Each structure stands twice: as C-alpha cells, then as structure tokens.
C-alpha cells in the first residue's frame, strides 16, 4: 500500500467511524476528532520516516555511484536495516500501530473486539483506500507517448505526468 498524505484524514475518520459504528470501539462523539487526530499522527510519522528513508537511499546511491535502476534493491536493503515497512507491509504496520493506540488513547473509551478481529477489520478499511499504482502510471504514460523512450526528457515528462494524474485523482 502506498500511503498518500492527501488521504490520511479520510483514512483516520473512516477507521474511527467504522469501528465505532460496528461496536468494536467506544468513542464519544465529542472525542472522535481527537481519536482520528491520533491516527493521523501515526500515519504522518510513518510518512516522515519514509521520506527520511528515501533521502538516505538517494544519498547512499550518490555516494557509492550506484545506478538508478538499483533504487528498489537499495531501498529494500536500507528499509530492512531500519525496520521500516514498505509495500504490503505498510497496511499491516499501520493496523498494528492503530491497535496499540486504541489501547492507550485517552479518546477511546473502550475496546470491545479482540486484537485479531480488529486487525482484520483495519486491513479491510485500509485496503479500501489502496490506489492502483499501475493504472496511474499507465494513464501518465498515455499522456507522454510522443516522448522518446529511454531519454531523460521522458523520465522528466513521466514524473510531471504522474504528479498531474495523482492530483487529478485527489492524491496530492
């Protein structure tokens, strides 16, 4: 799962509302905004660390003259060293963090559901916010099909097109 900053408030509110409506957690109406804010903070913290990781990957690749086509491998190695989740591990990580938060939050009155069941529900909610990255990329590539493949101009054009497509879909 790729977590988009623009989607964070929606995700937090969906989690609190669904779990409250289903009777999994008890949150007073007056505390729901604060309970959601706690989840926002968890996701923002994840994104901050993810940005730090990407910067560390870039610096290492530059320092060691590693070609850009090795970016994924290098990112995976550093991510593992840091214990930072990526890919499908992101929603599992966030789900565990949310559950831990529910147990200690001053804004969650009671947790009625077992962790395993909460975990499954949280994964389901998060999957509802997953974005088909391949479809976004295909849409962006369709916009730049007239730019020569393998060129620096194409990579720049693709990056611009991806930003535009993500913005169009409300992702940033």
Question: What does this protein look like?
Answer:
The structure is a single chain. The chain folds into two domains: about 5-130, no CATH class; about 130-170. The protein is mostly helical. The chain is built from seven helices and two strands. Helices cover about 65% and strands about 0% of the residues. Helix 2 (about 30-65) crosses helix 4, helix 4 (about 90-105) packs across helix 5 and helix 6 (about 135-145) crosses helix 7. It has helices at about 10-20, 30-65, 70-80, 90-105, 115-125, 135-145, 150-170, and strands spanning about 25, 110. Strands 1-2 form a two-stranded antiparallel sheet. The chain is elongated, with a radius of gyration of 19 Å.
Instruction: State the helical fraction.
Output: 55-70%
How far apart the termini lie comes to 16 Å
| Overall mean confidence score, pLDDT | 93
What's the SSE pattern?
Answer: HEHHHEHHH
Radius of gyration: 19 Å
The largest β sheet comes out as: 2 strands, antiparallel
Strand fraction equals under 5%
Shape: elongated
**Total domain count:** 2
* Residue windows where pLDDT falls under 50 for at least 5 positions: none
Topology (elements, then pairings):
Layout: H1 8-21, E1 25-26, H2 32-63, H3 71-82, H4 89-104, E2 110-111, H5 115-127, H6 133-143, H7 152-168
Antiparallel strand pairs: 1-2
Helix pairs in contact: 1-2, 1-5, 2-3, 2-4, 4-5, 6-7
């Amino acid at each position: 799962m790729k977590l988009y900053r623009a989607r964070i408030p929606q995700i937090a509110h969906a989690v609190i509302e669904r779990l409250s409506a289903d009777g999994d957690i008890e949150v007073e109406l007056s505390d729901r905004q604060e309970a959601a804010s706690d989840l926002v903070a968890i996701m923002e913290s994840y994104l901050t660390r993810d940005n730090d990781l990407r910067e560390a990957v870039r610096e290492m690749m530059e320092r060691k003259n590693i070609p850009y086509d090795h970016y994924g491998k290098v990112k995976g190695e550093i991510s593992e060293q840091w214990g930072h989740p990526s890919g499908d591990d992101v929603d599992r990580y966030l789900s565990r963090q949310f559950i831990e938060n529910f147990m200690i939050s001053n804004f969650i009155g009671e947790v009625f559901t077992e962790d395993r069941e909460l975990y499954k529900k949280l994964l389901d909610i998060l999957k509802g916010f997953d974005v088909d990255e391949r479809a976004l990329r295909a849409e962006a590539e369709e916009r730049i099909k007239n730019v020569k493949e393998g060129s620096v101009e194409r990579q720049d054009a693709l990056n611009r097109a991806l930003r535009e497509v993500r913005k169009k879909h409300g992702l940033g």
